[in-house]
Design brief:
This protein is α/β, with parallel strands linked by helices and 389 residues long. Helix content is 26%, strand content 21%. The structure holds nicotinamide-adenine-dinucleotide and zinc ion (ZN) (2 copies). One of its GO terms (molecular function) is zinc ion binding.
Length: 389
């Protein structure tokens, strides 16, 4: 079959690789019909290269048709239309029982590398599809076929009818955004600031408004992304056009700041010219530009919700100031299956969250290298690229 294979930093190719086969009674094989490129893939594409190996199949936002199931897989059968959550969870361990599916003990990578990357000596969470050698080294879903481990629990059966794009984002974007908003705990009618208007920021904004936030302020600098947010009711702020984002936000909020902030940027944040220089000198002091702007714009007693991915330490983290301001922080990989039952009804009859207005590019799988490039460089208006194997 054909699959998107990692060959090196900013070098992905579509290769011929062996077809996957059932290996465990809890496996399924799914023929992929749509598979999206995610902001998290951009970390693999560049920053997380040391955790990748040439030949890794990437991708973690797939859906398709079940081809074959192992003998312990009962809730899906060949021919069913399914979406595959990006985290691989057993549904029945200490953490899964608490809905902490991204911490599943059954699928955690216990290898030396995974143990070694945690500075606290505590290893890594649940395995993820197509996501490095510290998250299980599981072949990913940007491919014609996918072997789904723990398929007795993971795959979500979705109805026939609407186009794939109505359900595809159940794999990651929607539950991640739902969790970002849940963790932000915005008071009814309150104001939430969202840093980053990629797919995660876009959907977090729509979910926050749907759930009763009074005002959403979205911060980015890419014109098409600002425009998409503003047509969904977001008050937008181009951070490249102002001297200090915090000052603008304080002006908009009676000098107090936001009730809640969501960081939907993560470690790919872009900042000042000095920042970029530091980044290229590998000091990486500015990988938290968006996070710092968010932290400085929250009101006392407010909440910070991180969905953007960070790896390793952040220098000069203002812990004492957050303590003084009584800021609550919640974060983590999305516990996909915790939220999907609540989201599905918003997709089935009407497109309540406007998910059909997110994708900007549909491409054959063969064009994945181009998809990665334009998505990373934010060229050609790319906001969400969906590959069709
Ligand atoms: N927690 C999870 O489970 C989970 C799941 C999916 C994605 N993510 C993470 O969420 C983040 C966003 O994902 P995405 O697919 O939307 O990615 P994306 O790269 O499309 O979006 C990031 C956006 O941030 C903007 N940005 C960069 N620097 C900024 C700054 N200083 N201030 C404000 N905006 C800035 C960029 O212009 C871009 O539009 C990534 O870090 C991704 O890894 C986390
Ligand atoms: Zn993703
Ligand atoms: Zn589990």
């Amino acid at each position: 079959m054909k699959a998107v294979v990692w060959h090196g930093k900013e070098d992905v190719r579509v290769d011929n690789v062996p077809d996957p086969i059932i290996q465990e009674p809890t496996d399924a094989i799914v023929r992929i019909t749509s598979t999206a490129i995610c902001g998290s893939d951009l970390h693999l594409y560049s920053k997380l290269s040391p955790l990748m190996r040439e030949g890794d199949i990437i991708g973690h936002e797939p859906m398709g048709i079940v081809e074959e199931v192992g003998r312990e897989v009962e809730h899906i059968s060949p021919g069913d239309r399914v979406v595959i959550p990006f985290n691989i969870s057993c549904g029945d361990c200490y953490f899964c029982d608490q809905d902490l599916y991204s911490q599943c003990e059954t699928t955690r990578d216990t290898g030396k590398l995974a143990q070694g990357v945690n500075l606290l000596g505590r290893g890594r969470g649940a395995s993820l599809f197509g996501y490095t050698h510290v998250y299980g080294a599981v072949p990913g879903g940007q491919a014609e076929y996918l072997r789904v481990p723990q398929a007795h629990f993971g795959p979500i059966k979705v109805p026939e009818g609407p186009a794939d794009e109505r359900f595809l984002y159940l794999s990651d974007v929607l539950p991640t955004s739902w969790q970002a908003v849940a963790y932000a705990d915005v008071p009814e009618g309150g104001t939430v600031g969202i840093w980053g208007l990629g797919p995660i920021g876009q959907m977090s904004a729509r979910i926050a408004l749907h759930q009763g936030a009074g005002r959403v302020i979205g911060i980015d600098r890419v014109a098409e992304r600002l425009a998409m947010a503003s047509r969904h009711g977001v008050q937008t702020l181009d951070f490249s056009a102002v001297e200090n984002v915090r000052d603008v936000i304080l002006d908009l909020t009676d000098g107090r700041g936001l009730d809640a902030a969501i960081d939907a940027v993560g470690m790919e944040a872009s900042g000042s010219a000095v920042g970029s220089l530091l980044q290229t000198t590998k000091l990486q002091l500015d990988k938290a530009t968006a996070l710092r702007a968010a932290m400085s714009s929250i009101r006392r007693g407010g909440t910070l919700s991180l969905s953007g991915v960070y790896a390793g330490p952040i220098q000069a983290f203002p812990l004492g100031d957050l303590f003084d301001m009584q800021i609550q922080i919640r974060m983590g990989q999305a516990n996909v299956r915790q939220w999907t039952d609540e989201i599905i009804p918003l997709l089935t009859d009407e497109d309540v969250l406007g998910v059909e207005d997110l994708k900007t590019h549909t491409m054959p799988l063969e064009d994945a290298p181009l998809g990665y490039e334009i998505f990373q460089k934010k060229q050609d208006g790319a906001i969400k690229c969906v590959l069709k194997p």
